[in-house]
């Protein structure tokens, strides 16, 4: 007969995370870029106290457990306080992506039934446009002091966060409840149909954040300082705002300034050792550093994901700047990191190229997440590194259903990701494409990601994107978009010749379009839908 374990049964609650940091790492700093410019700094102890004040303030506004509080905000200390105050009170922290279209924002705020919205002054024009359409929102709270809180024409109930919070007591007894209670909500930024809500539980977030601290993932410790460039409005900034307090790690929040110069200067001035962001952010940072001949003095490791990190960029980080790259994969439905790559011990004797080729893949699944790839019939494909099919995931921090969703998205208990992947015998997963982006040509598949990664390997290419364009004979053929590096004179013939040396002949794109920039969406991903709309005609 099974025997019960005789351990205490304490729920994994987010309030315990910030109180842990306050008690054990009370002196560790949180540094935050204010939306109006200057740097703000305080400690985890002060952050916890302010979170308790906000919890009292929200209760003073009449909110109760189960209510939703939305945010339209950058990565900053007030947003961090809200992460803990809202969820810790048993309410739902609904992070809204400010780059959604106004109609979608209105939809998600109403769908989530947000009672209060916390916003940064940057987004005041957005608030002006949507407030009248969000009848459940009883207060719009600007994450600023009174002096930096704008008046918004036509919106009556705009409050200053500091004015709201400061008079409140910093004593608040965090309620204790089931760890499976909803803590946070984030909607997919899907381009078709209405966004769908992923409702994260306390348990899922705490487990993911603990896992994120581990050496094979972000490796957070009290001797580190981490700067999450990944936004707090999208998949919980990879749970770094929860993992850093668990690890006792200094947290550096960049606010609205995400350009190469601002990120570089913040990394240097705050002794940042670890960061995390999408490839486009790193492209901007490295371009700035190259232009000015700069080096990192403390940065050691960067997490990257959200879209595929081209191998050439990994090489630059590692070979030129001595920064260890951790390439991960995750999606709104997976709370934060699902897989991450790291070099094995035997790689010590490998060439740089071999190491970087491994790191260009998305790595092994973290403990707590299982992965498999299946064919169209749903059969599991072998882990041979070449059989590709849809990536399926299951685990402690993978959604089981969408918020107010009618139909379970799961297939036999697994979540279908919509990504095409391979899994190697050692467990390393490689994303080959999105199911909707893969280019189907003459019955075979071309990976747009592999083509883009190869194109970015050319020294004259700053960014590349590939879409499939209808073709009368081959079904689809690849069309390549290139943004040249400043000063580069690259032309079509040269890039196609270069690609012939990197990919199979039948993969070489049929045409190349040179653009000044690529359309990049709210989460730093190239909007291939926009490219398809404009260029997805028919090849003759
Ligand atoms: P989102 O839910 O908006 O975060 O988008 C998740 C999707 O981003 C995944 O399903 C992948 O298609 C893509 N993605 C995330 N990380 C990576 C990565 N490292 N490489 C390639 N694609 C990625």
Provide key terms for this protein.
15 helices, 24% strand, seven-stranded mixed beta sheet, alpha/beta, binds adenosine monophosphate, 25 strands, GMP Synthetase, Chain A, domain 3, 540 residues, Rossmann fold, single chain, nine-stranded mixed beta sheet
Describe the structure.
The chain is α/β, with parallel strands linked by helices and 540 residues long. The protein is 28% helix and 24% strand. The chain is built from 15 helices and 25 strands. The protein has helices spanning 14-24, 44-60, 77-88, 102-112, 124-130, 161-165, 202-212, 240-247, 260-269, 279-292, 311-320, 352-359, 448-456, 492-500, 528-535, and strands at 29-33, 39-43, 68-72, 92-95, 114-119, 139-142, 158-160, 182-187, 197-201, 225-228, 250-253, 274-277, 301-304, 324-330, 337-340, 364-365, 369-374, 389-395, 415-423, 429-434, 439-441, 444-446, 461-471, 475-484, 511-514. Helix 1 packs antiparallel against helix 2, helix 1 (14-24) runs parallel beside helix 8 (240-247) and helix 2 packs across helix 3. The longest helix is centred in the N-terminal third of the chain and has 17 residues, at 44-60. Bound molecules: adenosine monophosphate. Residues 188-189, 235, 305-308, 327-329, 331-332, 362, 417-419, 431, 434, 523 line the site of adenosine monophosphate.
């Amino acid at each position: 007969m099974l025997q019960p374990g005789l351990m205490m049964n304490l729920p994994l609650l987010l309030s315990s995370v910030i109180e842990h940091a306050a008690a054990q790492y009370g002196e560790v700093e949180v540094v935050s870029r204010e939306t109006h410019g200057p740097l703000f700094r305080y400690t985890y102890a002060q952050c916890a106290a302010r979170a308790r004040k906000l919890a009292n303030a929200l209760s003073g506004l009449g909110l109760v457990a189960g209510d939703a509080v939305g945010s339209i905000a950058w990565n900053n200390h007030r947003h961090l306080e809200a992460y803990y105050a809202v969820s810790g009170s048993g309410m739902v922290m609904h992070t809204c992506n400010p780059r959604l279209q106004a109609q979608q924002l209105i939809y998600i705020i109403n769908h989530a039934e947000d009672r209060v919205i916390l916003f940064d002054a940057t987004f005041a024009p957005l608030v002006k446009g949507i407030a009248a359409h969000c009848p459940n929102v009883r207060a719009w709270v600007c994450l600023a002091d009174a002096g930096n809180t704008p008046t918004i024409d036509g919106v009556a109930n705009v409050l200053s966060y500091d004015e709201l919070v400061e008079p409140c007591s910093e004593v608040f007894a965090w309620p204790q409840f089931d760890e499976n209670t909803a803590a946070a909500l984030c909607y997919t930024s899907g381009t078709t149909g209405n966004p769908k809500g992923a409702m994260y539980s306390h348990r899922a977030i705490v487990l993911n954040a603990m896992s994120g601290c581990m050496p094979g993932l972000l490796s957070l410790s009290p001797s580190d300082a981490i700067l999450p460039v990944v936004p707090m409005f999208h998949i919980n900034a990879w749970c770094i705002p929860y993992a850093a307090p668990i690890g006792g790690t200094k947290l550096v929040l960049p606010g609205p300034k995400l350009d190469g110069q601002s990120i570089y200067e913040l990394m240097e001035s705050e002794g940042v050792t670890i960061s995390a962001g999408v490839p486009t952010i790193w492209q901007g940072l490295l371009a700035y550093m190259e232009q000015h001949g700069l080096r990192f003095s403390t940065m050691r490791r960067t997490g990257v994901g959200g879209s595929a990190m081209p191998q050439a960029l990994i090489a630059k980080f590692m070979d030129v700047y001595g920064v260890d790259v951790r390439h991960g994969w995750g999606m709104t439905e997976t709370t934060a990191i699902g897989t991450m790559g790291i070099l094995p011990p035997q790689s010590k004797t490998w060439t740089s190229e071999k190491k970087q080729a491994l790191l260009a893949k998305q790595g092994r699944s973290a403990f707590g997440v299982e992965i498999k790839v299946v064919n169209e019939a749903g059969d599991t494909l072998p882990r041979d590194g070449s059989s590709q099919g849809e990536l399926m995931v299951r685990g402690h921090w993978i959604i089981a259903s969408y918020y107010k969703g009618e139909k379970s998205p799961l297939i036999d208990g697994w979540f279908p990701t919509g990504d095409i992947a391979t899994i190697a015998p050692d467990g390393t997963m490689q994303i080959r494409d999105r199911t909707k982006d893969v280019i189907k040509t003459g019955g075979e598949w071309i990976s747009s990601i592999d083509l883009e990664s190869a194109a970015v390997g050319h020294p004259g290419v700053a960014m590349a994107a590939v879409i499939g364009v209808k073709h009368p004979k081959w079904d689809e053929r690849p069309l390549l978009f290139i943004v040249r590096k400043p000063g580069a004179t690259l032309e079509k013939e040269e890039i196609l010749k270069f690609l012939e040396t990197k990919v199979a002949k039948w993969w070489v794109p049929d045409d190349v379009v040179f653009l000044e920039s690529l359309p990049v969406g709210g989460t730093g991903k190239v909007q291939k839908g926009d490219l398809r709309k404009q260029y997805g005609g028919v090849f003759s």
